[in-house]
Structure formats: C-alpha cells, structure tokens
Amino acid sequence: MTAIERLWADFELPIRDALHFADGHSCNVDLDSDAPGGLRVLAPFDLDEILESDPSWVSSVDGLTAVDLGSRGLLWGGEGSYGSEGFIARLTVDRALIWAIFFTESNPFDRIQLSGDVATFSSTSGFEITVDIDDPRTVIPGPASNRTT
Q1: Residue 140 — pLDDT band, cuts 50, 70, 90?
Q2: What pLDDT does 147 receive?
Q3: What is the per-residue pLDDT across 76-129, written as a single tens digit (0 to 9) for each?
Q4: How many angstroms separate the CA atoms of 22 and 6, rounded?
Q5: In what order do the strands lie in the sheet with 128-132?
Q6: Pairing of strands 18-21, 26-31
C-alpha cells in the first residue's frame, strides 16, 4: 500500500497543491485561471520523503459533492480541514483512491459537471478546474475564464 493510499484510508491528503495517484506518483500543481482547464501540472515529487520529514503535514478531507460513474467509480469534491482548502478526486466503486488533487487556497469544491470523460469541478470561491477523469494530467481547455469575480 502506498503512502497516499494509507492517508486516503483515513480521508487525509497532504497539505500541498498536488496531484496524487494511488500508485504513489505525485506532482505539484498550480491553480492558474489562464491555463487550459484552470490548473498547471508541474514537477513530480517524492511524497514518502516529504511525509518522512513531517508525517503530520496532512489535512482531513470531507466530500460536499459527488457524481456516480456507475461501474467506473465516483467523482468527489469537497473541503479540507481549513476553510481555504479544497480537493477533487476520482475513486473506485469501493471508494478507493484512483487520483486526488488538493489545493490550499481554492476553497471547497461543491459542484461537479460531467460531459463524457471530462469533469469541471467548481469551488465556492469561483475556481473551475476541468480535467479528463481518466488522467487529470491531460490538458483540457476549460471555460474562457476559470475564475468568476
């Protein structure tokens, strides 16, 4: 079991703007309303190394919205321990993690729109993140403006 799977078993994610896959791969991400889909996937990093230096560097997450994908699992969005945090995730039918993205300054995600294999997650502060649900690293053009004012 990978570090991220162990965290997810307790509904926790690392406090870092990052994309995590169940297989243990993690990448930094950046909310960017000018980027296609509203985010940029950046350099990979070693989650085990980071958690080794500070194992308490996690936030509890709680879902606020979900889309049932039937036999393909579930999309889930919600909040972290602090008001500014938000997360989006894809889970298996058994609610095991496939991937999750955590943001420290997005505010909670409370809406999901699905069109085919493309989902747009919207936060309470107006951020919109559009991803391919099979691989959120895939660049998907989002709305002209990914943040409402």
Answers
A1: confident
A2: 44
A3: 999 999 999 999 999 999 999 999 999 999 999 999 999 999 999 999 999 999
A4: 10
A5: 109-115, 118-123, 128-132
A6: antiparallel
Tell me the three state secondary structure of residue 86: strand
Which of 45-76 are b and which e, b meaning 16 or more Cβ less than 10 Å from the residue's Cβ? eebeebbeeeeeebbebebbbebebeeebbbb
Single-letter code of the amino acid located at 56: S
- Residue reference for tokens 């997650």: 121
Give the separation between CA 25 and CA 106, rounded to whole angstroms: 22
Residue type, 110: D
Q: The whole model's pTM is what? A: 0.93
